[in-house]
């Protein structure tokens, strides 16, 4: 019922940036090539995300807002092989239980768009109504935590919440340089990144300094592949926290991986306290468990020693190009 869904939502929807993450992942899963993110008041007042993805047919809209309704897993055995970002089918339901959610969507073969508003009571969103708009989906989330004032009290300042939202956008935009991202806050455009390759997206997001002093990584060893860029220490470093690691396309902050990269910097450059990098590890999805935490930011590898060694050597070899 409503209470249970709000408690469950608390785990997933900690703050506005959690909404932004879930909606962006859905947009990417839907095959979007252009995504627009409009935020108001740090996302608390409004988070509206528009994509040009596959859309949702009107008869599926009530299910999209229902708990444990996902179109992404057909059987339990699929769980091991999930390649899409979302798969638990509870994000939209959780968001709809703590905010006013309106979903507007149009599939390519529909004459017009349809919309539905999520009721806070699970499974009572009603039927879709005719609407207008281009192909793709807009999810408009207003007044986050309007019905849970206790949770609203834990929110930080508008600028802090906005900062978390913008960081989530950067994480996903680095993972998908081919997708156009537009971000605005309180009606002002904050970022607009054209679709490009990873090197250009790194320059857009990690800055020109990073781009002018970075080395490419592209190593394969058996089923493991590491791709991306590692930054060299520069005199003027705009960001000390530009550390982006992805496993099978998903942003992670993992001790084992962070350690492997840091150890390589230590080894080759004799230390850079704040290495900056955008690295993407690809491996057989059956060799990694990404579901250890609700926020899905940590991972567990079947063979963590092999992964550590591989990442350490790949980054070391890339960095060694400087002294060569
Ligand atoms: P999950 O992503 O885990 O499947 P969600 O609650 O995030 O669960 O979304 C529920 C369903 O709604 C998805 O499985 C998908 O079918 C549909 N959906 C959500 N967002 C979009 C979108 N932007 N474009 C197309 N379909 C979407
Ligand atoms: Mg999802």
TrEMBL record:
The keyword Flavoprotein does not apply. Keywords: DNA damage, DNA repair, Endonuclease, Hydrolase, Nuclease. GO terms for molecular function: endonuclease activity. Residues 202-320 form the DNA mismatch repair protein S5 domain. Transmembrane segments: none annotated. It comes from the Bacteria. Belongs to the DNA mismatch repair MutL/HexB family. This is DNA mismatch repair protein MutL. It comes from Keguizhuia sedimenti. The lineage of its organism: Bacteria, Pseudomonadati, Pseudomonadota, Betaproteobacteria, Burkholderiales. The gene is mutL.
């Amino acid at each position: 019922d409503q209470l249970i869904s709000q408690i469950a939502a608390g785990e997933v929807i900690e703050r506005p940036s959690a909404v932004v993450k879930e909606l962006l992942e859905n947009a990417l899963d839907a095959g979007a090539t252009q995504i627009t993110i409009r935020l108001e008041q740090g996302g608390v007042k409004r988070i509206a995300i528009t994509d040009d993805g596959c859309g949702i047919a009107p008869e599926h809209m009530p299910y999209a807002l229902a708990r444990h309704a996902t179109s992404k897993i057909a059987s339990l055995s699929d769980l091991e092989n999930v390649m899409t970002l979302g798969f638990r089918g509870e994000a939209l339901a959780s968001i709809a239980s703590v905010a006013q959610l309106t979903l507007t969507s149009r599939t390519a073969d529909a004459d017009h768009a349809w919309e539905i508003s999520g009721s806070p009571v699970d499974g009572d969103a009603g039927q879709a109504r005719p609407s207008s708009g281009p192909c793709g989906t807009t999810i408009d989330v207003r007044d986050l935590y309007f019905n849970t004032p206790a949770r609203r009290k834990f929110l930080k300042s508008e600028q802090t919440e906005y900062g978390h939202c913008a960081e989530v956008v950067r994480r996903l935009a680095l993972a998908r340089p081919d997708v156009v991202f537009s971000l605005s806050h309180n009606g002002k455009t904050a970022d607009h990144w054209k679709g490009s390759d990873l090197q250009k997206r790194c320059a857009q997001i990690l800055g020109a300094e990073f781009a002018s002093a970075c080395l490419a990584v592209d190593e394969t060893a058996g089923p493991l592949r590491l791709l991306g860029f590692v930054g060299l220490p520069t005199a003027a470093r705009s960001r000390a926290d530009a550390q982006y690691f992805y496993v099978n396309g998903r942003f992670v902050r993992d001790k084992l991986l962070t350690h492997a990269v840091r150890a390589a910097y230590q080894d080759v450059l004799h230390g850079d306290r704040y290495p900056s990098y955008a690295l993407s590890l690809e491996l057989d999805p059956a060799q990694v468990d990404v579901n250890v935490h609700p926020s899905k930011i940590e991972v567990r590898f079947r063979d963590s020693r092999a992964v550590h060694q591989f990442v350490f050597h790949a980054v070391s070899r890339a960095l060694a190009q400087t002294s060569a």
